[in-house]
Amino acid sequence: MDQKRLLDSGKYISELTDRINYIADIKGGIEWGSLRDLLDRVQAVRKKMFDLQEDELFVELDQVDRRLEFLEDQVAQDLSPIETVNIVRSPQRFTLQDILENCYDSYTELGGEGECNIDPAVVVARATITRRVKNKLYYHQVMVIGHEKGFGEEFRNGGCAKPWGNEKALRYMKVAEIEGIPIHSYIFTPGAYPVEDYPGAAQQIARNLFRMSRITVPIVAFVSEGGSGGAEAMGLADLRLMASRGYYSVISPEGAAAIEGRIKEGGKVPRELVEHCADQLKMTAEDNLRLKTIDRIIEEPPLGARRGDFKFFRRLRYEMVKATDEVVLETKSFRMFRSYALKRQSQERSNGFHDEFDIHIKWSLTDSEKKRLIELRSRKYRAMGKGYKELRQSIGSRLSEAVETVRQNYYDIRYGLLRQHSRQVQKLIEEVSSEGSVFLKTVTEPVRATYDFVLPKPKVTNGINQQDIFRRSIFMQDWEQYISPLANEDKTVSCPNSEKYGCRDLWVPDLYGEFCGVCPTCGHHFPLEYQWYLENLFDPGSVREFNNHIISANPLKFQGFDEKLKKAIKRTGRRSAIITFDASVFDIKIVVAMLYSDFRSGTVGSAEGEKFIRACDRARVTRRPFLAYIHTTGGIRIHEGTLGVIQMPRCTLVVREYIDSGGLYIVVYDNNSYAGPVASFLGCSSYQVGIRSSRIGFAGPRVIRETTGADVPPDYHSAKNALKRGHIQGIWDRREFRKNLFEALMTMGGPHLYYK
Amino acid sequence: MEINLKDLLKKYKSHPYEDHEIKTAHTGIVHLNVEDGQEVSGPTGRWKHRPGTLLYVLEREGNPKRITSMYTGFVTGLRKELDSNFVQAGVPVMVIRHSLNKDEIIDRILREVLYVFPAPQRARYFFTPEVAAAMEKEGANILNIKDGDEIVIMSLMKRDTLLSYLGPPGVLYKVYFRHGDLIEQGAPLLGICSPERLPFVERMIQRIRTEWDD
Amino acid sequence: MKRDKIIIANRGEIAIRIMGACRQLGLDYVVVYTEEDRDSGHVKTAAAEKGNDAVFRIANYKDPNEIFAVADYCGATAVHPGYGFFSEDFRFARRAAIRNRPIAFIGPRWEVIRDLGSKINTKRIAKSLNIPVIPGSDEPIYSEIEAEALAEELFQKQRDDGIRRPSILVKASAGGGGMGIEEVTRLDVFRQVYRRIQNYAKRQFGDEGVLIEQCMKGYHHLEVQLLCSRHKEVVHFGTRNCTIQSTGRQKRIEVAPGFDPEYVAYPFDAYRVLEQIVNYSIRLAREVEYDNVGTWEWIVTRDGRPYLLEVNTRIQVENEVSACISRISKHKRPVNLIREQIRTALGEKLRYSQKHIFFDGTSIELRIVAEDVKRGFAPWCGTITRFEFPEEPWLRVYTHVPRDVAYEIPTEYDPNLALAIVWGQDSEEAKARARQFLSRTIIEGVDSLGQPIVTNLGYLYERVNDILRFV
């Protein structure tokens, strides 16, 4: 056999081995089909390579090849969601390095290189991408950011960005903004690395989202592996593309299976359950396109693109340029966009894709185009993730909507004028507006009665009559009427700090009544139900709930979730995990969104996101401070898949609009606040406060142990540590919540409570 | 003071455990959860945050308090007759016999060999900044101290007092507290070894390490 | 009532006195004790009288859960808190009343304890009943302008009253026990002091409310002893004078009655003042429907103006000075106020009224304490080797110090050694007997440095001369 043939056969063998292993990766093991046998045959050929006749050798290998082709077709024809996940996780899949090498003409890595890097899991590069127009080359500068999974490179941490990695990404996004070049972001992450060290996993993602929501250059995102919050840190984009064999999910199928199956830590998660969850989570590209959480799919070869699929990279380059064009053109005049769109259509009709463009489009934007870009971005996200249901509204609520319109006009006139005119005009307007408010009152008053909401009244369980405990005395304020139903039992409980501070056992009626659930010795806060806050935080009778008709649903038809939802509804008498309402604190009118624990652990899905957004908009329109009181949130509701995840950028964008228009946004965390919401629309607030004994963080201790392999101290997520790390601005005592809130409104809000 | 290491080791070999009497912290009804002879474990985890074996439940005023073991060992002298009965405060319920491991044996023997300077008050203790810095740099058992040296700060009722060392001069061989720990009155604070005895002590520890099987 | 069983939630001398009252009433009782008090007199007495089943070791006297757990276990139907500990803890009383198995709290209703437990609130109620209170604010002040106006008013009032050196006190409303109080003698420094106290209050208590009141000087401290039943009966057992106190405001000598014009001359009608404070006290008691023993504390100035200070909703250490001079016509013996307290708390009627109560003679209580009066009443620690005092029909001595063996004063409690109550036909005789008692009492002991014991016997001997007088 001549030397060349020998070389070819070597390549042939290793290619076949790779293909066998690849199928094994997808199918979850070498035992599937006849893989083991094929591998043995290839190995046998390799061993006998120098002894065999050339023909014999190639005949054998060709046979294996044909057999493999058959198997590959079989796998591709019936690819299950978990197999898609396996494709993404295969070491043979392309990574960001391959994209940088193949889709871009030149690039310079920024903020570190390889292992010498603040976070090797995040790669940032200033790159050049070319466009061919009729045999002429045009160069575009872009900022590429993304995750590098670096298969075989331990230090890449599998593409799990550390908080400082996300911070690096954001830093260079700002550079792109200064330089006016578009951002191409590539998402290859199973999730963010859940450590709280500064700048903090959740807090940094929130910062990224908040800043990306108003970055004035086009952002195009491409998702291969979209692991929940980690993906969002770079995923907020004007156009979101997804690899046809990628996955984009709220949680890993294993994680979901552990939760669904209530598997104990370290326990074995059944394979069937993992497969089932992968299916239920609707994480494939088609699913996500259908759910409108992505804009389009980039076709890969049937079994997914691998490192050497140059055709795929050519296609990806074309798609990235085209997508950037589209984003840029959207900001331009209507006619120009139309003509471009028509051309594109004719192209696609002819044959799949070209890599040649008809025209050259510059990617820089004028100031007005930048403004439009931001507006379009908001509009885009507002239209996403609507997996909630709307109940038919009663006449009352429809009337209230009419009132809302009147109100909006009123406020537009009032504040629109105020902003433009001088002090004298202001005075005049104030006189006029007092008349206006009289008018407004007559419209709203009769409506109120119908949309007042009724609290589930605490049940008195046994012997103790609370009237006896709180016979009115001069020490009580008028509003101190509500008693926690927890107080109705003659028993004692131990304070968790008793060993440290010698706290005595507390008698429950004292603890949950007079002591407001606070240990008088050490100040530990026992959890109290959300109703307590409704009754004690706001001026009596000032709470007016709205948007009650938006309710949680099961948009993914997640098996078994309907029952869970029903149970939650029965338990709470409510239909979503958020309550949004108008209220006042010492006569300061505010809008409040409250996530509470009783309903699916305060998890955020489409209904919660929508209600939050509407509350935030209401605060913007009525020019009132906006309070997010987080009684508890367990993160994004996994049963809504990416429809839940998308609430993160979605709500953050709306918060951004509110803050940019001059709003005062205060977030108060209580009990447990974790994951997605903290890593987005809560964490982005400039004013975040924790109630004593609350825990704030990204992932719970178990997830941290399972992902990082290291244990965390029991007080890792405590409010005190969150304060130390700079994640929150203060810790409030529950008993002083009302007073502190008032003071915060006065000091941060100033006399007009709306500081622009 | 002459130490017969052989006798000491013999003593610990014949009785290689410590007994901890478990008494009720307050009144209430006892519900036993262990059997005589049962093995129990103390708190675990890096921060000792996972409680040990549940020994019994002490129920008072509707509050069933879980009493878990602070020691690893086995249960002896269980008073079964207390089960499901009301008991007063300070009543012995059982004894946990804890087998000493090598490090604990060394620790116990050291306490007999070293001059132990006890905590004069129930208070928090710190090293003076200079001493702390020196120890950081050169390691703990390098420090020579003599009578009257002020190396420890006692913090009592938020008042800091410099503590004068009283005792024979020597090398600070062992520190029995961590920076800022609350130490009971009379509990050991520092273990001091005279320079001439130092080789002997080192040899002794070496010997225990080799002779003792866990 | 005969079926009631009392749990005595206290220690020492008062526990023994409560046991005595129970014995008189034929009531069953149990006592509690802590490990340190294992050999204490109250444990020994109870065990001897009721057996070992009537004594319970608990973790802590101050843990209400222990008291209720023992009460339920032994079937107690009532709890006597003594003084200190739970005696003025309205939460304890409330829990006793509303728990699933209620037990009677031997003291006033919890609402009364709560509402009179606050000096500010007491002042407010008193004001509404035209009972004189120390001039000043009756609720926390938050505004500087308001505060300054009030300060000016108080200075003016004092000048009008002919007070030569007027002064006012500025206090943190949430404070207590002498913390955050400053005296102001000139109006022009008021604002400065006000701000200082306000800042202190805000820092220390998280509430910047400030109280302002006239600073009283050279007054007498009087008390009115009331007894009320659950059936709206109110009687008084006269007044007592507790002016002689240590620098730390600890009472040292108490005398009943509160003033004695036959013994010293006063520049005002002393009988009238006594009658006034008794009547005012009763007026307040009726208003709040007070229903047990209680002490109304008064300040009486040199010119005979009374001001209500506060109400103590418990039995007091010195209750027996009043009891000693009180007779109920039917019984010839002095009244036992603890016994009456238990009776009324368990719902009995008084079975007598004010007209059946007579007063006879003068009584003096002397508190013998191991303290160095020359050095700011510093407590003395050591071992008592000899303790002797005379026995007389006109004398009663309560002490936990054994006379047969040496006794080391425990360091965790105040070094109170004994309580002596002396009775005389008139103040002169009572005083003479008190001095006689003091001169014949012998206390010997040494401290750890071999120094002899220091007591306040000499101080008491001197100060007995000052009783009932404005000096």
Describe this structure in words.
The complex is a heterotrimer of chains A (756), B (214) and C (471). Chain A has 756 residues and is of the alpha/beta class. In chain A, α5 packs across α12 and α7 packs parallel to α8. In chain B, α2 (102-113) runs antiparallel to α4. Chain B is globular, with a radius of gyration of 21 Å. In chain C, 32% of the residues lie in helices and 25% in strands. Chain C is of the alpha+beta class and 471 residues long. Chain C starts with a strand and ends in an 8-residue tail after the last helix. Chain C has helices at residues 12-25, 41-50, 64-74, 90-98, 110-117, 119-128, 144-160, 190-205, 270-287, 319-324, 337-345, 427-440, 457-463; strands at 5-8, 28-33, 55-57, 78-80, 104-105, 168-172, 181-184, 210-214, 220-228, 234-245, 251-256, 293-300, 306-312, 326-328, 357-359, 362-369, 371-372, 378-379, 383-388, 395-399, 407-408, 416-424, 442-446. The chains are: A alpha/beta (756), B alpha+beta (214), C alpha+beta (471). The A-B interface holds A 489-494, 505, 507-508, 711, 713-714 and B 45-47, 49, 60-63, 65.
Number of domains of chain A: 4
Number of strands of chain B: 16
- Based on secondary structure, the structural category of chain B is alpha+beta
CATH class of the largest domain in chain B reads Mainly Beta
Q: What level of helicity do the residues of chain A show? A: 40-55%
CATH H-tier superfamily of the largest domain in chain A: 2-enoyl-CoA Hydratase, Chain A, domain 1
Count of discrete alpha- or pi-helical segments spanning 4 or more residues of chain B: 4
What strand order characterises the main sheet of chain B?
A: 1-8-6-3
What's the mean pLDDT score of chain B? 85
Which quaternary structure do these chains form? heterotrimer
Which chains have the largest interface?
A-C, 19 and 19 residues
**SSE-based structural type of chain A:** alpha/beta
Distance between the termini of chain A: 82 Å
Short description:
With 214 residues, chain B is of the alpha+beta class. Chain B contains 4 helices and 16 strands. In chain C, 32% of the residues lie in helices and 25% in strands.
